[in-house]
Write a structure and sequence with these properties.
Blueprint (H helix, E strand, L loop, with lengths): L1 H21 L6 H36 L11 H26 L8 H26 L3 H24 L10 H4 L2
Helix pairs in contact: 2-3, 3-4, 4-5
Amino acid sequence: MNRRVACISAFALAAIAITAGTAWAASTRAEYVAQVDPICQSALTADKALFRRYVKTVKRVRKRHPNLDSATHPPKVIRRQVVKYYEAFARSERSATSQIALISAAPGDESTVALWIDERTRLADLTKSGARALVRDQERLFVKRIVKSINSELHALSLAKSLGMTACAAPPSGFFGP
């Protein structure tokens, strides 16, 4: 009798798991886009606000310290703002990507969506490691990683556009201007 109860319980748990997994599944591409685009829109809004705060802070620092004008080796106070911005941007992108990853792609779009999510993850990882390189005074490594992250972002944007997304295909402010 205990074996039968255990089998029924296991079957019930499996059915619940399958149902829960398909609750986020999209049956069409349009449905997937309708579920994912609001997440990207929210992240895009947060990224724009983050970029505006960054620019405002750097302008304030430059105003307080007018002799900080060194383009080749920015002073530590400016570098800290750059690091804070890129770390916050990486957290924002990682958070949005983890939310998007919970939603199953429409049938036939699985490989494109998986590649898109991988590019978004790579973008966040490269941005974070670039910020860490700047903390360690490795400017060349910082630039190299940020350039790679921009390439990942461009690839992710083109994939999102090919899926018919709007907000997910819009570039964030920090990379291509306000």
